[in-house]
């Protein structure tokens, strides 16, 4: 992100027995999976949403950040809440292994 400092605010989100749908670009998912700095695709990272820390960008309110576990690794997922004819879904934008700061946020708030 070119050295741009991102601003986020903490957001609590609880799920009451409804199914969350995910949409993503399958080509982007495969590129992330083969990237050694990422190591997984969007299919695997959906596990983050089982138990996660969530916040929202202050400067770009359409994007959210979820931090959570996939296996033994903490990951960060950037996503947008979108709507189509079937209702609301999460559009997964990108992902990475959680940074030290993101690990601390997860430990403090989740």
Secondary structure topology:
Elements: E1 8-10, E2 22-23, H1 26-34, H2 42-45, E3 52-57, E4 63-70, E5 73-84, E6 87-97, H3 100-109
Parallel strand pairs: 2-6
Antiparallel strand pairs: 1-3, 3-4, 4-5, 5-6
Walk me through the structure.
There is one protein chain. With 110 residues, the chain is of the alpha+beta class. The protein has one domain. It is 21% helix and 38% strand. It is built from three helices and six strands. Strands 1-3-4-5-6-2 form a six-stranded mixed sheet. Strand 4 and strand 5 (73-84) form a beta hairpin. The radius of gyration is 14 Å and the shape is globular. The protein starts with 7 loop residues before the first strand and ends with a helix. Residues 1-17 have low confidence and may be disordered.
């Amino acid at each position: 992100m070119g050295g741009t400092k991102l601003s986020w605010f903490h957001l609590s989100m609880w799920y009451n027995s409804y199914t969350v749908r995910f949409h993503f670009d399958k080509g982007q998912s495969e590129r992330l999976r083969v990237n050694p700095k990422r190591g997984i695709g969007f299919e695997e990272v959906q596990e983050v949403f089982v138990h996660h820390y969530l916040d929202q960008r202050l400067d770009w309110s359409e994007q959210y950040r979820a931090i959570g576990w996939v296996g033994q690794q903490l990951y960060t997922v950037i996503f947008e809440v979108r709507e189509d004819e079937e209702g609301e879904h999460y559009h997964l934008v990108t992902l990475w292994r959680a940074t030290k700061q993101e690990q601390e946020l997860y430990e403090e708030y989740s």
